[in-house]
Amino acid sequence: MLKRLGRSAVVQEAAGSLLAGYIRLVRATNRWTFDPPDLHDRLVPELPVIVALWHGQHLMVPAMKRGDMPARTLASRHADGGVNAIACARFGIGAVRGSGGSARKSARRGGAQALRAMLDVLAKGESMVFTADVPKVSGRAGEGVALLAKLSGRPVFPFAVATSRIKTLDTWDHAAINLPFGRGAAVLGDPVRVERDAGPEALERARLAIEAGLDAAHERAYLAVGMQWTRRGASRAAAEASPHA
Q1: SS3 226
Q2: Which among 238, 244, 206 is positioned nearest to 221, based on CA atoms?
Q3: Which phi and psi angles does 58 have, rounded to 5°?
Q4: Residue 127 and residue 54: Cα distance in Å, rounded?
Q5: What domains are there in the chain, each with its CATH number?
Q6: How far apart are CA 56 and CA 113, in angstroms?
Q7: Which pLDDT belongs to residue 99?
Q8: The organism sits in which domain of life (predicted)?
Q9: Per-residue confidence at 134, pLDDT binned at 50, 70, 90?
């Protein structure tokens, strides 16, 4: 019965609206810094771009979007993907439905169709923002992000958002629930570019560069709010967080 309720359009709409409202609350009640300070302007000459995230660290990303930068996200076909898509829509972010994984799972989840749809989105001048992890394998970028960069010719920008007050869940991605009334930081990493004629070795180098860029961006974001970033999606408070948190 709970699964059926979760698939209900009415329930998903209500949950998505509540989630968007919570994200706005956290955005409004934290003191934010940006690294670099002009991170949005840095993206303008590169648009459209691919923005890569780590799963479980992406709650506040929709609230970082600037209004003049059209973007879409990749949302799974599951009920939670529907809720996330509705929440993102409240921030002007559309959704492409589907997810990756192994060839068999990707076919079932709509991975191939999603890749084609994302290529169409980028070709129309809209950016794509989505998590880079292999499904259920936190902290390992999948090949799909690098492949999308190759086929589209668009750069990949690692991106991280952290807050000084969080609740870390006991999930596969150690999901961080950002809390109100603290400090927040958003960090944009250096772009990773993939040549259109890139072979398997070049794609693997790009995949590893995206992983390293995501870890570096999260390390900077967490440090900025007095926290310590730990590899593979887990986050822990620094031994002595800033008293101004």
Answers
A1: coil
A2: 238
A3: -110, 5
A4: 17
A5: 2-237 (3.40.1130)
A6: 24
A7: 65
A8: Bacteria
A9: confident
